[in-house]
Amino acid sequence: MQEFNALLELLAMLAKEPRTGVLLILLVLASVSDYRTYQIPNLLTVSGMVFGLIYNTAVPFSINLGFFWALGGLLVGFLIMLPLYVLRVMGAGDVKLMAMVGAFLGVTDTLHAVIFSFIVGGMAALAFALFNKALVRMLGNVKNAAQMMMMSAIGGFRPDVQIEASKSVGKLPYGICISIGTVAYVVAKQLGYA
Asked: Global pTM?
């Protein structure tokens, strides 16, 4: 019964607070685009960032949570995902999508959404590798990427982690994982589980 009431509160929040509804719509659009084309349009992510910044400035959750709260979330989302782009493990659209999420959620909630997204992404990658009978190759690629990161951190050089096409397990539309992870976190927070 408590979960049902919390779900009703979530639906009521979506009706009276458009911020979360807009975020959910943008995440669905990003997921569909990523699934179809393996790309997330800049128009979608950048307009989402701008909306998040402007809306949170005009209608902050509280007096202390305005523009800098949204900007902090945007920067956290961007900076956490940027190393994965540099390592060529993730696309630029995925990085911008998490930055957009940050503009809506602020710093703390963005950190949680990233963790949820990584969990969903890990499960999706594992399922993808198992389905394609490529688990051993995937684990080898993960090991090589981790070694390159360690060597670059110790040696102070820019890593060059390019996986040969023959060793690649395939492409995973990670924007879907970010969307599912973010929605899961928002719902879990509303239900009192996060």
From this structure: 0.82
